[in-house]
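Quick review question:
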């Protein structure tokens, strides 16, 4: 199936645009409020699509609860943690570095849970991390330890989000391994929205200024990210090893850096280009079977 062949590349390109959407939305919307609305709209759109296509819904409450809880882990806690931390002033480079640890953690847990990883896969995960570190290193210049200590809560929340994503991938693999992905996705976004909304109410003034950038970021986040990228990720998790899917995260920061270079004029050095190639080579090794 052609989609399965193209899925990894499509996922990386689409997922990396999340940084661009966040950049557009950040000045005009509180992050948790934006995400709660994004998840609710995504749930509505996917549910209507599933109903129109007569996709079967889970037949028992336990299956529905598993789907909703996986959405809390994969969306509410992960994206909520990352967006909130960046909104509190955590540098994007530091956030990207924290996210890059996720494939290492996933590989370690995969081995303890019996998932078979070849030595070449483990080597690829390490090489990929080194490549990502090289790409985002310029963004870390000038970030002082003292400055990060003042953002201790933001760092902790970002790290917690990374752990939630790791837990969510394993939870999805083991407890949501069957069922129609269209209805499963809708239930995940229902769970994510219900979990994010009270957090937004407690910690934010729930402010959104509706202008072109906000509408564009919301439309892209709902249709392309929440439906396109997440659908691809869930499909790959179901059909492959979670450690191989997680390794694709290494390609997200380099791809986002290229997008920022062309769209916002952010600097990109030749050395960063070399490290992008290193990260890509690491993913190639990590996903070999």
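Suggested answer, residue by residue:
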């Amino acid at each position: 199936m052609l989609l399965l062949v193209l899925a990894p590349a499509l996922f990386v390109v689409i997922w990396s645009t999340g940084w661009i959407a966040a950049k557009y939305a950040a000045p005009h919307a509180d992050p948790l409020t934006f995400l709660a609305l994004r998840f609710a709209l995504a749930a509505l759109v996917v549910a209507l699509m599933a109903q129109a296509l007569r996709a079967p819904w889970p037949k028992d409450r336990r299956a529905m609860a598993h789907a909703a809880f996986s959405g809390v882990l994969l969306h509410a806690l992960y994206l909520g943690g990352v967006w909130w931390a960046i909104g509190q002033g955590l540098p994007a480079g530091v956030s990207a570095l924290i996210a890059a640890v996720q494939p290492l953690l996933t590989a370690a847990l995969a081995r303890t849970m019996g998932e078979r990883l070849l030595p070449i896969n483990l080597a690829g995960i390490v090489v990929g991390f080194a490549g990502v570190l090289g790409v985002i290193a310029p963004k870390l210049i000038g970030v002082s330890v003292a400055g990060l200590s003042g953002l201790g809560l933001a760092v902790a929340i970002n790290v917690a989000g990374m752990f939630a994503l790791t837990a969510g991938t394993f939870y999805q693999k083991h407890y949501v391994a069957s069922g129609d992905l269209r209805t499963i996705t809708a239930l995940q976004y229902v769970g994510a929205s219900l979990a994010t909304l009270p957090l937004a109410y407690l910690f934010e003034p729930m402010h959104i200024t509706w202008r072109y950038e906000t509408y564009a970021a919301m439309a892209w986040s709902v249709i392309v990210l929440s439906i396109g990228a997440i659908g691809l990720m869930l499909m790959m998790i179901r059909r492959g090893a979670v450690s191989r899917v997680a390794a694709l995260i290494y390609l997200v920061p380099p791809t986002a850096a290229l997008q920022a270079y062309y769209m916002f004029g952010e600097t990109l050095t030749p050395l960063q280009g070399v490290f992008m190639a290193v990260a890509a080579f690491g993913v190639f090794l990590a996903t070999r079977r």
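Why it works: Residues 2-286 form one domain. The chain has a mean pLDDT of 82.
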